[in-house]
Amino acid sequence: MKLYNTETRTMQDVHPSSSDGRLRMYTCGPTIYNFAHIGNFRTYVFEDLLRRTLKFFGFQVVQAMNLTDVDDKTIKGAIQNKVPLKEYVEPYRIAFFEDLQTLNIEKVEFYPAATDYIPEMIGLIEKLLENGSAYRSPNGSIYFSIKSFPSYGRLSHLNLNELKVNASGDNEADEYDKENLSDFVLWKAYDPERDGEIFWESPFGKGRPGWHIECSAMAMKLLGESIDIHCGGVDNMFPHHENEIAQSECCSKVRFVHHWVHVDHLVVDHKKMSKSLGNFYTLRDLTSRGWSGSHVRYLLLSTHYRTQLNFTMQGLEAAKASLQRIEDLILRLRAIEKPGEIDPSISLFLAKADEAFKSALAQDLNVSAALAALFDLVRELNTFADQEALTHPGAQKALRLLESWDKVLGVLPLEKQEAPAHLLELLTRREAARKEKNFSESDRLRRQILESGYLIEDTPQGARLKKQ
């Protein structure tokens, strides 16, 4: 399997670097100061697709996704709402895991919260002070010295000579724009006006960690000093990931990350997502409008991760239609009861489809080509069914192939959706009314079923109910 490495700008083989054969992966998670938006979930769905694909190809994955519960935004929110930090972030932490479940994102091995790793962060900062990579500023905060790390900038490939150096003086912001190159804060000295009652004790005095040191401490504690894959949104490349490299390698003296993977931006109707433009969506905004987690997941994963994704309501409609096509095929395959051997041409076609699907994923997760293989399969299997070439064993083999692919995609409608018993009873009564030519009663029962959210579909095996 090959993945594009942001640092080297080349496609590289994926392989574990540790002797135990486990592939260690770190993914930047949410800052839990609010509900995550669909731009965040574009990254999280990709990271889930990557994790599932690695496992599909036989890798043993150990993954950590952090939860940032202390930074400028969470502290500001807690102070404004006059509640303790933990109390402020907890509803958003719970909501995040509910959203992961809605999108069928697999649970990973570790979800470290930053506030649980303050001692590890302090330990890293002490090392950086000892070896001269960090210094105390006049305001009492601890800063990392960029000049102590000669290869700073190797990930983002920015021309450091063209950036404004220390443009804002002491830079205490967790996030700053790409035009500002400055030593970054490792430990923020306590400021009662800014921090309220939120601080930790340390050898450097009261304060709290800077955002960048948090991820280094959690990744190194849980996965080791050198990890195989580090993922995140392209907006985190600079300064966050650049700073992670510098501070981690100055502590450990070994390469921090072997393979950097970044997900491109999500825009809405070709515009940057913004509350002021009215195009800012959380997952809950979309589900409240009737879209399912599957519709959203399908749309978010359907574009290659290194390509900008344009999110539209029309795109959701197309995702819904695509999933319906797949569900229609699945229902059709399950209904085939024709006995006999599997046609050799069908077996050959299924094998070639499987090879196309796997080959696409193995080349930098080319999900567009993988989905093309899926819909080639849908079209050809419908043709075989139309020609009555599919036997029960052949249909079952096709279903097993779809189940195998869904270990990666996590979105195919394979679960049997049985209609409620009272609606099945209405369907039975409707069929009886039709046979008796009681069309007014038949139409009344049909309307009642439709109003309950189900369609009536006539098939060679008889009428059946399908969720609208």
Text of the CATH class of the largest domain: Alpha Beta
So how many helices?
15
What number of domains?
3
Radius of gyration (CA) equals 27 Å
Q: End-to-end distance, in Å?
A: 39 Å
Second CATH tier, the architecture of the largest domain:
3-Layer(aba) Sandwich
**Average pLDDT over all residues:** 92
In helices, the fraction of residues equals: 40-55%
Topology summary:
Blueprint: E1 2-5, E2 10-13, E3 22-27, H1 38-56, E4 60-65, H2 72-80, H3 85-102, H4 118-130, E5 134-136, E6 142-144, E7 164-165, E8 180-181, E9 185-189, H5 192-195, E10 207-209, H6 211-223, E11 227-233, H7 237-252, E12 257-263, E13 266-268, H8 283-287, H9 293-301, E14 309-311, H10 313-335, H11 344-362, H12 367-386, H13 392-409, H14 421-435, H15 439-451, E15 454-459, E16 462-467
Parallel strand pairs: 3-4, 3-11, 7-8, 11-12, 13-14
Antiparallel strand pairs: 1-2, 5-6, 6-9, 9-10, 15-16
Helix pairs in contact: 2-3, 4-6, 6-7, 9-10, 10-12, 11-12, 11-13, 14-15
